[in-house]
Amino acid sequence: MRNFCTLFDSNYRTKGLVLHQTLMHHMPDAHLYILCLDDPLYGLLSILKPENTTLIRLDDFLDPALRSKKNSRTYTEWVWTMTPSLPLYILRAYPHLKEIAYVDADIAFFHHLQPMYDEIGDAPCMVIPHRFPPGKEKLENGKYNVSLVWWRNTPRMIDLLQTWRGQCLDWCHYWPDTSGRFADQGYLNDWPEEWDAHVLQHHGCNLAPFNMGQYEYRYLDFPAPGREPEICIYTSLTEEQVTGYKLIFFHFHEFQVKNELGAQFFRCNYARPNIIDKYVYPAYETALRHQIERIRPHVQHTR
User: Fold this and answer.
1) Which residue segment(s) compose the domain that 42 sits in?
2) How confident is residue 300, by pLDDT bands cut at 50, 70 and 90?
3) Domain tally for the chain?
4) pLDDT for residue 51 is more than 50
5) 174, 53, 61, 152: which is closest to 100 by C-alpha?
6) For residue 9, which phi and psi values (nearest 5 degrees)?
7) What sections of the chain are H helices per DSSP?
8) Which of 14-23, 130-139, 163-172 has the lowest mean pLDDT?
9) Nearest Cα to 199, choosing from 132, 264, 124, 262?
10) Structure confidence by residue, pLDDT tens digits, 1-20
11) Per the domain annotation, does 45 fall within a domain?
12) In CATH, what number is assigned to the domain containing residue 56?
């Protein structure tokens, strides 16, 4: 069984449910631990009972160190401060788990993650680069994106999580500083050298608005009604070399649910390649609408 954890509040509830839905569709034996950042969300998910899921109430999760940062940081910064504490909390509560991945709630899966695990091999942990297009690098945001980060449950990786937690408790803000820190993310810069983290090379993992413009795309099969087309992302289409990767998961950075029950969405400010705009975003919006209908009978009891 593969294990995942995420955290979100009621404002992200349909996104979080799509994360769960797409994960279960492609990896039905996976287990998702959800930290509910408010009681209405905990109540809603307790009613919906998503399969293969463990719900964590915020009051049960917070310790004095995390509580002490609530008033000195913005809400978003405080949530980022929690990121390393969540997998640490779970591995301590469930020491039999062999591994776990943290995943952002605005991700949707389009394929099984086996290619990622195959590439990781025997590595103790894994990080994914931002893969900014050449000339558009945002170095102040860090080398790696905290969209999906993976660890084995070993004493050394527990040390890593404890170190990361301490760093985020010390400083976790929305702006970069002169030492390279940025939110919970800049601390990952040294992981490959200091903690032997594997840097994932599969470009189908964490395709996102901030990197999608540099690739070419093809359907692996012709889209048919009722069947999801498989999309291939090409980093090279020269006569000498053709290099492509299946789309594994997409990070819907900047996607906004403007009116949840009215199903009004805003995709992003980035230029979107045709296939991404024609298939990936509509597939996500369809999944969101399904979750909106799912929660509609219960919303009045959870807001």
Assistant:
1) 3-202+271-302
2) low
3) 1
4) yes
5) 152
6) -115, -175
7) 13-26, 39-48, 58-61, 64-67, 75-82, 85-93, 114-120, 155-170, 191-195, 274-275, 281-295, 299-302
8) 130-139
9) 124
10) 999 999 999 999 999 999 99
11) yes
12) 3.90.550.10
